Amino acid sequence: MKGISKSTKETLLKLQQNEITEHHIYKLLARKMEGKNQKVLLKIASDEKRHAETWRAYTETAAKPNMLKVLFYLVLAFLFGVTFAIKIMERGEQSAEEAYQSISKEIPEAEQIAKEEDEHEKALIDMLDEERLKYIGSMVLGLNDALVELSGALAGFTFALTENRLVGVAGLITGIAATLSMGASEYLSQRSESGELHPLKAAIYTGIAYLITVTLLVAPYFIVPNVYLALLWALFDAFLVILFFSYFVSVVKDTPFRPALLEMTCISFGVAAVSFGIGLLARRFIPVDL
To answer: Is the pLDDT assigned to residue 206 strictly greater than 50?
Structure first.
């Protein structure tokens, strides 16, 4: 065995397991891809295995992959896409970078491997061309419109009608109609632009994003008996949608998270606040007998 300290060996064992685990993750993800994407993932998988073998020369131990971690990232890729899963995994490499620095004086290869992890693999990841990422603009359109329009509409309905199921039905009808309208508008928009996006797929992504948001916002009115509590729940759901999608876009597009979150939150809740007032005025000056 090459002469290394006990603490360094422990660090290498952790790095070795991490490298072999990521080797299996990239290799399994590559099976879900084709063409250039598959080649990129297989190249990264090969690099990870080579790194693990480098550490094995020092530890003289065969590390086993962390199968729970492998399963976690496979599920993440299935739900949110391969690019999202990989970039989340790479964001967790900060501790590995610190480990490389701690052993670089004792292990000459550590600095080179750290450089590959930081530069080469990130460059390869940027080469990924995942179809669903092309339609982020369509998804943002669907989410933004659903959040702004429906949260405002539900707020107005709540204070104008004050009956939970009535508000829920009105919101559901409004949401479904708007989903179809937005999908059709996106289809016509993409068709007229003659861009790289497929008009029908763009319409489907927009419609799905809109419909998911509609479901989350309207559902509380059919669950909670108190109409005002249902409104608070719906607004909380709206914030969760904004929070998740802002984070998703920040990860896959490498853009700042907080500005996007703040902008979408202010717009959606600002419109809802205005609609509160409109609903109160409508109920006071235009009496409705329910």
So the answer is: yes
